[in-house]
Amino acid sequence: MHTLRVTYALPILFIVCALPAPACAQDQTYDEWLAADRAAQIEYDDTVTRQYQEFVQQEQKAFDAFIEAAGRVWGSNDVWVPDRKSWVQYSEDLEERSGVDFEAGHARVQVVVTDESDPDSVKTELAAAVERLALSGTEGPIQMFHRRLFGNGNPPSTTTAARAAPDATYTVREGDTLWGVARKFRVSRTDLATANQLDQEGWLQVGQILKVPGITPLPAAVKPASTWKPSKDPLLRGQLQTRRGKPVSRANARAYAREVVDEGLTVDTVKGSDGAARRVASVSVPLVPNHVAVRAERFRPLVTKYAGKYGVYPPLIYALIETESSFNPRARSGVPAYGLMQLVPRSGARDAYRYVYKEDRMLPDTYLYDPRNNIELGCAFVHVLDSRYLKAIENATSRMFCTIAAYNTGAGNVARAFTEGRSVTRAAPIINSMGHDQVYATLQRDLPYEETRHYIEKVTQRMPQYRAWR
Q1: I need a labelling partner for 399 at 20 to 30 A (CA). Which of 122, 230, 417, 469 fits?
Q2: What's the whole-model pTM score?
Q3: pLDDT for 401-429, tens place per residue?
Q4: What's the domain range around 247?
C-alpha cells in the first residue's frame, strides 16, 4: 500500500500529461474527440458535467478528512492510502487497519492496543482483525469518509462527532479498559480520554461514569466486531491458505487468523499527530504464490464476454488489467481513477459509457468498482481507440501496439512518436510504411514519456501468458 507523505495531494480540476495512466490517456483522448468532432461537446449534458465537478471536489474533501483523522492516530507520515495495486481498509475508529499489496503478494494488519493489555488480549484483538481481512470486501477509507461527509450525513471524524451530537455515558465494569470502552462505542481513545480528563494510559475504576463524546452507544454487551458481517464475496477469496495448504473460508478463518498471529505478532509504538504514543500490534500475511492468476481467473467470464462483444483481443485486456491494477477490483489512483482498468469517471469512462449506452450519465466510484461495469467500459474504450482514433493504421498488430500506448498516454502522444504534432492522420502514413516490429521499436524509443515506453513493454510481455484464456 502507499504510505502518505506530507507532499501528497489529490488533484481536483487540473490534469496534465504527467498524471498516472490511464488518466492522461483518457483526458487527452477526450480533448482529441472534441477537436475532431465539435458536435460531441454539444451532446454532453451540462448537468452531468457539474455533477462530475462536484464529485471530484467531494472526493478531495473526503480525502483530506481521512488524512487528518488517520494522521491523528498513526502519524501524518504513516497513513496508508489505497492505490492502483493495493487495497486498504480502516475500522470506523481508525485504530485498526489492513493493507494488501497485490503486486508483491502480501498483506499487513495493525491494531492499536493499550499498555495494560495482556499478551493474550493483544493476540485476540489482532486475530479478530486478521479474520476481518480474510472475509472482507468493504469500502476503502476515502469511500468511508465520503459516506460520512456526503452520503448519510455521518460526521467525518470523532472530533467532529463530539461537537455535533449529545454525549452518552457509560458505567465502568470490572475488566474494562479505556481502550476497550473506546472500541465498544467506536470512538477514539484520545477523544474519550479528553472528554473525561483522563490520562490515556490510566486505569479506570469500577463504577466510574464515563462521558462518551457525541456517539450513540451500542448495548454494553455488544462489541464493534458484532456489527461487522463477512462479505458474500471476500476480496481475498482463494488468495489465503492455512499452514496445511487449505483455502481460507468462513469455516476456518478464525483458526487461520489465530495461527497467523501466533507465528508472527510484533508490537511497536507509533506517535499520532495528536502527540499521543500508541502501542500497535502487527502481523504480516502472505498471499498464495499464484495470487495474480487466482484473481485473473475470477474475472475471466467477464473478460470473455465483453472482449467478444466489442471485438478486442482478450489477452490484451488481461494484460492491461494486470498492468493497471494487478487485478485489484478496488484499485484507486489519485486522479482519481477506479477499478480494474483504472477508468477516470469524467473522461474515459464517460466517453465509453456514452458509446455503449448512447446517453450521458454521472458514473460514481461505486459503479466503476463493480468488475462487470469496469470491464465492459474498459473493453469499449479499447475498441474506441482501435476503431476510431487509430483506425487509419492498417496493420492490425501495429494498431494494437499503438492502442496499448494510447491507453496510457493518449493517441496524440502516440502520433508524436512518428511525426511532429499530435495528428494521427499525419502519423498514419508513416506508421503504415513500417513493419509492426519497426512500429514497436519506434514507440519504445520515441514516445514522449518514459512511463509509456515501459508501459507498452509490460503489456506486450504479459499478453502471451493469457493466450490460452481466449
Answers
A1: 469
A2: 0.77
A3: 999 999 998 999 999 999 999 999 999 99
A4: 75-146+240-287
